[in-house]
Amino acid sequence: MKEADSVVFVVDDDSSVREAIKSLIKSVGLRVETFETAQQFLWSKRPEVPGCVVLDVRLPGLSGLDLQRELAANDIKLPIIFITGYGDIPMSVTAMKAGALEFLTKPFRDQDLLDAIQKALARDRAARQQRMEIAELRERFDALTSREREVMRLVVAGLLNKQIAGELGTSEITIKIHRGQVMKKMGAGSLAELVRMTEKLGISAAKD
Question: Helices 172-186 and 146-156 meet at what angle, rounded to 10?
Answer without folding.
Answer: 90
